[in-house]
């Protein structure tokens, strides 16, 4: 994968490599209205951001670059290890591919990080108080240093330990992830309600 000249200060890395055991298959491919969960997320990201998706390559409505974690299914930290060599911007926004509304707060997370040079990360926190490292902006250099080698099997939360970070509250919609069919039904219902006059 070549690394093009960047026109933005941020790159989005979208992790799509999960097995989806509770869902019964690949959550990112699930139908979401007239599109898929992944495409709904990608469509909402800033147009000038380069997007790198990690997982099994497939067609998407937006042009993205694909790479694969080693080994496949090795977990989110392995996914980051695969993507980071292809990031050429100072900021990387990491997103879960099963979070159809995560694009909403992504630009604000990146802007907050870029405005605070002493920080390494701006991490979302959902309404239940859980940190969301897969809805966060990171200083690329700092995230590279935090990813161990080998990366597979490393708990995602461990990456936050050495990083100087600040936490930002997220609304329940932004933090909604599709872990089960019921989650998907809820997300689709919200999407439909937004289209109603």
Automatic annotation (TrEMBL):
GO terms for molecular function: nucleotidyltransferase activity. Keywords: Transferase. Residues 12-147 form the MobA-like NTP transferase domain. InterPro entries: MobA-like_NTP_Trfase, Nucleotide-diphossugar_trans. Signal peptide: none annotated. Coiled coil: none annotated. The keyword Transferase applies. Pfam families: NTP_transf_3. It comes from the Bacteria. This is NTP transferase domain-containing protein. The lineage of its organism: Bacteria, Bacillati, Actinomycetota, Actinomycetes, Micrococcales.
């Amino acid at each position: 994968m070549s690394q093009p000249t960047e026109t933005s200060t941020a790159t989005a890395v979208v992790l799509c490599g999960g097995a989806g055991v509770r869902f019964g298959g690949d959550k990112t491919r699930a139908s979401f209205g007239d599109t898929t969960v992944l495409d709904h997320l990608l469509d909402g990201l800033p147009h000038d951001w380069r997007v790198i998706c990690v997982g099994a390559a497939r067609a998407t409505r937006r042009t993205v670059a694909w790479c694969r974690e080693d080994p496949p299914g090795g977990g989110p930290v392995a996914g980051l290890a695969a993507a980071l060599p292809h990031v050429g911007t100072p900021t990387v926004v990491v997103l879960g591919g099963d979070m159809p509304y995560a694009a909403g707060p992504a630009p604000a997370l990146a802007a907050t990080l870029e405005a605070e040079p002493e920080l390494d990360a701006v991490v979302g926190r959902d309404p239940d108080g859980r940190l969301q490292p897969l809805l966060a902006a990171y200083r690329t250099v700092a995230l590279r240093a935090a990813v161990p080698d080998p990366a597979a099997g490393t708990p995602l939360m461990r990456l936050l330990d050495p990083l100087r970070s600040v936490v930002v509250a997220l609304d329940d919609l932004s933090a909604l992830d599709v872990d089960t069919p019921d989650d998907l039904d809820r997300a689709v219902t919200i999407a439909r309600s937004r289209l109603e006059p």
